[in-house]
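Async update (no meeting this week)

Hi team, since we skipped the sync, here's where things stand on the single-chain job. The sequence we agreed to prioritize is pasted below, unchanged from the tracker. I ran it this morning and attached the output directly underneath so nobody has to dig for it. Comments welcome in thread, and please keep replies under the output.
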Amino acid sequence: MSEKISEAELVVMEALWEQSPQTANDVADRVATTRDWSLQTVKTLLSRLMGKDAIAAQQDGRRFLYRPLVRRDDYVASESGRLVNRLFGGRVSPLVAQLAQQDQLTADDIAELEQILKGLKS
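Output:
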């Protein structure tokens, strides 16, 4: 992927990660539950994502079928790394500390983090 994905483009990517391939109409219907976007807006976002090499389109008769070229896990790993590098100098512990100070961590989150750390120590 050549460029960063915007918040709006991420909504379209989430729809495609959930199910693909999809037509522009399918994507518009899927995002309609959370966004009041026209079909043209969705087509514009799809076009931008193609320009960023995040998705591909295959012609199917008179329509195009869109599919992601980037796996969601890979995107999340890349964006997480960017966030940690940009805001916390590449260190994860200050991020976790910040979340804890802001009461963003639930008891389940803490238990999950403890399990991850135990697994890393093994």
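Quick observations from my side:
The chain has a mean pLDDT of 93.
The two ends are 35 Å apart (CA to CA).
Reply here if anything looks off.
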